[in-house]
Amino acid sequence: MPGLTSASALPGILRDMPEGPTIVILREAAAGFVGRKVRAVHGNSREPIQRIAGRRLVAMHSWGKHFLLAFDDFSVRIHFMLFGSYRINERKPTPARLGLEFSRGGELNFYACSVRFIDQPLDEVYDWSADVMNDAWDPAAARRKLRARPQALAADALLDQDVFAGVGNIIKNEVLHRIRVHPESRIGALPPRKLGQLVAEARQYSFDFLEWKKAYVLRKHWQVHAKKTCPRDGTELSYRKELGQARRRAFWCSVCQRLYE
User: Fold this and answer.
1) Which Gene Ontology terms describe the biological processes this protein takes part in (predicted)?
2) Which string of b and e fits 94-126 if b means at least 16 CB within 10 Å?
């Protein structure tokens, strides 16, 4: 369909756990549905999804890892969790959690995800300045929030969606390697320059991620995530299956990434 991108043109877009940049790609790919009425709804969500039928989609938004479908007096939040996926203008063999069929043809299907209705205005629910992909991103606010969490590990701080909405585990590992900070460094022990680098690179790497993902070369640019050797000094990378309160995989170089305690 004109103005729409099929899922086949975006292979494996959610092969890795969704992070902010992948949700931006979905928002852009599905933008052609905005302004259309939903003529039919299907899916196995326990939410009252039939209330969407007959309603006109007025906007799409992304906030961190949330994909938001806005209608006149409510919105629908899609969270892909660990294994969620979507299809545009096609279906998977498995049942959709939520499927929307639009006027003039075309459909949008979501799988293995969380579906929630939001009845308040989105501006009352979301702090857009915390989204690293948003034009309203506020690095000064991020630094203030970090300074209020001096005991937090750098790895946990980067995954805190109240501070860095959209940053996931890939971005976390790569940002810490870029700025040469050990994932178990305490936020309160980081020099001001390092704290500033952490905030700046969380956003910069997210946009690098977006560019590489669109070009299907993201994995080629990984320096430490799921790797075995540090590209800077050639030493074997350290790995932990579960690190910090977030209990997420961590890859780092014990030579060039300094531990601040």
Assistant:
1) base-excision repair
2) eebbbbbebeeebbbbbbbbebeebeeebeeeb
Q: Which CATH class is domain 7-125?
A: alpha beta
Domain ranges of the chain: 7-125, 129-252
Q: Which two tokens stand for residue 241?
A: 């299956």
CA dist., res. 203 & res. 134, Å (int): 9
Query: Could you tell me the pLDDT band of residue 5, with boundaries at 50, 70 and 90?
Result: very low
How many degrees, rounded to 5, is the angle at CA 143 between CA 138 and CA 149? 135
Token duo for residue 234: 């050639």
pLDDT at 18: 80
pLDDT band at 17 (very low <50, low <70, confident <90, very high): low
Distance separating alpha carbons of residues 55 and 68, to the nearest angstrom: 15
Distance separating alpha carbons of residues 205 and 58, to the nearest angstrom: 31
- Rounded CA gap, 152 and 189, in Å? 10
Q: Which CATH architecture has domain 129-252?
A: Orthogonal Bundle (1.10)
The pTM for the full model equals 0.90
Same topology between domain 7-125 and domain 129-252: no
Contact 64, 89 (CB under 8 A): no
**pLDDT category, 82, cuts 50, 70, 90?**
confident
Tokens (6 digits) for 32: 């052609």
Rounded Cα distance between 202 and 188, Å, is 18
pLDDT at 10 over 80: no
| E strands in 18-167 | 38-42, 59-63, 66-70, 75-79, 85-88, 98-102, 107-111, 114-118
Q: Is the pLDDT of residue 4 over 90?
A: no
